[in-house]
Design brief:
36 helices; alpha/beta; 27 strands; 7-stranded parallel β-sheet
Length: 1037
């Protein structure tokens, strides 16, 4: 308790009332021992009797209270319930001979956190491994735990508490809480999580780290936190003004704070930059007006990777070590933290080398320079004296950058350790051998190496050499595929399945395989024709698929044009010896099922990104049942989920013979398909899936019964009315305008984080997100290679203008409609004429605790009488389809998927830039905006740009209104499919709201009364409206 209020610097703190003086003694002693100010006590006159009175006499009360004075625990005394002037007089007479409690002599400042229990971070703070470090648990973090993300999305806060408890039991001193996700109301989620967590003693005994990139969510978490927390994080990259504002608010809340070594120019890498940024931050924090307690400042000066082969990286270790000492000298009482594993990232797989590097690094950084905290693998740590003799000098040289050849010597020592480890596994001794190039290996091994490493440079001559070798032994070209090539791909499959290879590497392996097969195809075709002709058969009939593990058909459903994920699954399955029939995008039910019959496939996969695709998948499942199909159906894509598959799709078709299964991502596809096509594993696998999906259905329908909803009228009564005095100024001109953007102008606006998600590369805390993902121990190396490949291709795209960016934006006079649920727009400021168009909106109805307003996008536009406006845009990246087709024709799936992924990033960057230009110039309601790209991506600007079909307005049919109003297809060439997917696939559209109170939210499930009303407002048949809105209906249609 005292630790949580000491930041307010109280004059006096104490206890009153309670159970009488005797029962208060142990609590008063503990408070007296820790309080740095005066202490008081006002006890009751004993316990209340049956009639509510108090029986202790003045003598009784004096006898019990005198112990407090005698022990020197208090400075002031008095009485509470049941006490009278004679009671107080008796206490005075008994205690007047004793001296008041002396104020304690304060030692050096120290960080003093608290949950239900206090936690002091000082020289004698040790973790569960006996190290002077503080452990911060990361599992209550959406980005750090898939399980946590799933549970919080499903609202299962009780199970989230179990995750938090497990962390504390495992030795976490502090629990990190992060709920940042675009599909989640982060403010409400943070409030609810913290409110529940503080009622769980096993969780709340530990201090919390309130972790969010959105400061309003940080403040919400702090307001419900009952102890003294740490906030993660702030930095100068937002500029001094906002940095000071944030720090001041955190000080008022009594929180400690992590300060990253970033400023307006970027991340600190050198010692000078680390010290400069931290000192500048410290001076701003401890001086007026902030006056932040220096002991509550934790600097993270960025531990970066050494031994990469890049010369400027060699000094990263010693720069950090030197910076720690200097920072602590220049910033008294601050703390220093960092992610230690980042240092040795380049030596993954050789643990003894990594831990030896860490041992010397920590010796110099922690013991000599004073580093306080760090993220380490405690179970594997070595003390300096435990480092093997052969690694001692080379590791310390590398850490301290003492020799020009330190990296080379460390690499040589690492190779020696690898060889020694392999020899020990074999039970032999280490032999000194000449290092040979992989090109010196036998040809079969060269092919395996090329496949595993994704090296296509020599594959054609090596394949030809292998073919001739097998031919000389009496074999056929097919034997090259079935033998060495498939052996190599089996190695790739095993490594991928074990998590030792990553998706980009697998795609590169597929490129090598395809080139090898393409070289062999003419020989195989010629041999096949000759054989069939010799048998008197037509060589153009028949298709021998016996060499494949199975046949799989995959398609993106009708109306949906998105295919990156589908392409990746096709490649991964192909790499595992499945014959894949990829029939493309916008495939009707008939096309899919007819192709499945034609090719006699063993399983069917459906993919989709937009919500209308969910209904298409249900329709395909129904038709498969009608036609009597007996093959498994797999469901995947960004808009799909295990819950939707279990509740909506599986009941239409699934059986023990032919289940319906949701596949989360490409890495799971091989396991699912192989399990389904195996006679041994299929029965148990399908039974487990069926049981799981039955439980999901029960859970879903039970949640519908438990969830309460407001009627539409009740929700409308709780709308949020924007302040009409704060509406944005009118644009200089109204109407629609076409925009053609140069590629090089949008490149700086690229958000790389979704790019790595496309390739299924995910860093773990503290290395989540770009560019920190490059430091991740598991995926960092591959992420860096992938990014290098991407930037090379991006440079070529910009240079050759392979892709083109075109779109349009519109600005219109706007007001909330008469009923208040829609938005009317006009092409001129004359609002007395009929509206040019009406955008229909949906409102939240699911009842939520402490929710003051039930939002609709219509709430963000002023009613009639106020001259408000609405913006919108639609943009596309043209040319990606042709570029992808060219790469596919060249058997280069890696480049095909890469150009599609870059097209997505470019069009999103185009949208980001256009929205900025609308705010600052075209509409001009924020002409002085000066935000960095990082701040733009964190949505720190005024207003929002929600897209039709997404959580704030989950009705894709509203795109038609936008398309008709701006004549998008005619002016820009961007089309809408039957399911209202935008074509090209790399397209973005949005409405632009300027009001500062506008915010992103999720409509969630809605009731039939709103659907009926909405259909009437749109003049749409109810059944059709229900079909478009089916993913958000809280009832079965």
């Amino acid at each position: 308790f005292y630790a949580s209020i000491r930041h307010a610097k109280p004059m006096c703190v104490g206890l009153n009332c309670a159970l009488g003086a005797a029962a208060m003694a142990p609590f008063l002693k503990r408070l007296s021992d820790c309080a740095e100010c005066f202490v008081h006590v006002y006890s009751n006159a004993g316990l209340p009797n049956a009639m509510g009175g108090y029986d202790d006499t003045p003598a009784d009360m004096a006898r019990e209270n005198v112990e407090f004075a005698k022990n020197g625990w208090v400075n002031m005394m008095g009485g509470c319930c049941g006490s009278t002037p004679p009671h107080i007089a008796a206490i005075y007479d008994a205690c007047k001979v004793y001296k008041p409690r002396p104020l304690p002599v304060l030692g050096p400042p120290r960080m003093w956190l608290s949950g239900l229990e206090d936690f002091k971070v000082d020289a004698d703070t040790y973790n569960n491994c006996g190290l002077p470090f503080v452990n911060v648990g990361e599992r209550c973090n959406i980005a750090g735990s898939r399980k946590f993300k799933r549970l919080i999305m499903e609202g299962k806060y009780g199970e989230l508490m179990d995750i938090a408890k497990d962390q504390v039991e495992a030795g976490a001193h502090i629990v990190d809480i992060n709920v940042d996700d675009g599909m989640l109301d982060g403010l409400a989620a943070m409030q609810k999580f913290v409110k529940m967590a503080v009622t769980e003693p096993d969780v709340s005994k530990a201090p919390f780290m309130i972790d969010s990139s959105k400061f309003d969510i940080v403040l919400a978490g702090l307001k419900w936190n009952q102890g003294k927390a740490i906030v993660n994080s702030i930095s100068l990259k937002v500029g001094e003004k906002l940095f000071i504002e944030h720090a001041t608010l955190l000080r008022k809340h009594g929180a400690a704070v992590v300060v990253m070594a970033f400023d307006e120019k970027g991340q600190a890498a050198t010692k000078e930059d680390k010290v400069r940024i931290c000192k500048r931050s410290y001076d701003l924090l401890v001086a007026p007006p902030v006056c932040f307690p220096p002991e509550d400042i934790v600097f993270d000066p960025n531990i970066l990777t050494i031994g990469t082969g890049i010369e400027e990286h060699n000094a990263y270790g010693v720069d950090f070590i030197d910076a720690v000492k200097t920072i602590k000298e220049q910033c008294p009482w601050c703390k220093i933290s960092g992610g230690v594993s980042n240092l040795s990232f380049g030596f993954r797989g050789v643990n003894v080398v990594r831990e030896s590097i860490h041992a010397y690094f920590l010796y110099h950084a922690a013991i000599r320079s004073g580093m306080d905290m760090g993220i380490v693998n405690a179970a594997e740590m070595l003390a300096r004296h435990e480092v093997p003799k052969q690694l001692q000098e080379v590791c310390e040289d590398a850490v301290l950058n003492r020799r020009d050849d330190a990296t080379d010597r460390l690499l040589a020592a690492t190779e020696a350790e690898k060889e020694a480890a392999e020899a020990r596994k074999r039970g032999g001794v280490v032999a000194v051998v000449k290092k040979a190039s992989w090109r010196d290996l036998p040809v079969a091994e060269r092919l395996t190496h090329a496949l595993v490493k994704g090296i296509s440079e020599h594959v054609e001559p090596d394949t030809e050499e292998m073919r001739l070798e097998i031919k000389a032994a009496g074999g056929t070209p097919l034997a090259v595929i079935e033998g060495p090539l498939m052996s190599g791909m089996n190695v790739v499959g095993d490594l991928f399945g074990a998590g030792k290879m990553f998706l980009p590497q697998v795609i590169k392996s597929a490129r090598v395989m395809k080139k090898a097969v393409a070289h062999l195809l003419p020989f195989m075709e010629a041999e096949k024709r000759a054989k069939l002709e010799a048998m008197g058969l037509d060589p153009d009939q028949g298709d021998d698929d016996s060499q494949y593990a199975g046949k799989f058909l995959i398609a993106t459903v009708k109306g949906d044009v998105h295919d990156i994920g589908k392409n990746i699954v096709a490649v991964v399955l192909g790499c595992n010896n499945y014959k894949v029939y990829d029939i493309g995008v916008m495939c009707t039910c008939e096309q899919i099922l007819d192709a499945a019959i034609e090719h006699k496939v063993d399983a069917i996969g459906l993919s989709g990104l937009i919500t209308p695709s969910l209904d298409e998948m249900v329709d395909v499942a129904k038709e498969m049942s009608k036609r009597g199909f007996k093959v498994p159906l797999l469901i995947g894509g960004a808009t799909t989920s295990k819950m939707h598959t279990a509740v909506k799709v599986a009941p239409q078709y699934a059986s023990d013979e032919h289940p319906v299964i949701h596949v989360l991502d490409a890495s799971r596809a091989v396991t699912v398909v192989s399990s389904l096509l195996s006679e041994d594993s299929k029965p148990d696998y399908v039974a487990d899936i069926s049981d799981e999906y039955a439980e999901l259905r029960d859970e879903y329908y039970a949640s519908l019964e438990d969830r309460k909803y407001l009627t539409l009228a009740q929700a409308v009564a709780k709308r949020r009315d924007v302040d009409a005095t704060r509406i944005a100024p009118a644009p200089a001109s109204l109407g629609a305008k076409v925009v053609v953007e140069a590629l090089e102008d949008v490149v700086p606006f690229i958000d790389w984080n979704p790019f790595f998600q496309t390739w299924e590369l995910r860093g773990r805390y503290p290395n989540r997100g770009y560019p920190k993902i490059f430091n991740d121990e598991t995926v960092g190396s591959e992420a860096k290679k992938l990014h290098d490949d991407a930037t090379r291709m991006l440079d070529e795209i910009v240079k050759n203008k392979t892709l083109q960016l075109k779109g349009c934006y519109g600005l219109y006079a706007a007001n909330r409609s008469a009923g208040g649920e829609d938005v009317d727009v006009w092409s001129t400021e004359d609002r007395s004429t009929p509206a040019a168009a009406t955008f229909c909106m949906l409102r939240q109805q699911a009842e939520a605790e402490s929710q003051a307003h039930y939002l609709s996008q219509a709430d963000f536009v002023a009613p009639t009488g106020s001259p408000d406006h609405l913006g919108m845009f639609a943009v596309s990246c043209f040319g990606a389809e042709a570029a992808a087709a060219a790469h596919e024709a060249n058997n280069d799936d890696y480049s095909k998927i890469m150009v599609q992924a870059l097209a997505d990033r470019l069009v999103e960057a185009f949208a980001e830039k256009l929205h900025r230009d609308m705010r600052t110039t075209h509409w001009g309601y924020a002409p002085d905006e000066q935000l960095s790209t990082d701040d733009l991506l964190k949505v720190k600007y005024a207003g929002i740009r929600p897209a039709p079909g997404y959580p704030s307005q989950p009705d894709h049919t509203e795109k038609r209104t936008m398309w008709d109003l701006m004549d998008v297809e005619k002016t820009c060439g961007i089309q809408l499919s039957s399911s209202l997917s935008m074509m090209p696939a790399a397209s973005v559209s949005a409405l632009v709201f300027a009001h500062p109170d506008a915010t992103y939210f999720a409509v969630g499930k809605i009731q039939k009364d709103q659907v009926t009303n909405y259909a009437e407002r749109k003049s749409m048949p109810l059944e059709e409206c229900e079909r478009w809105l089916s993913p958000i209906l809280n009832y079965d249609r």
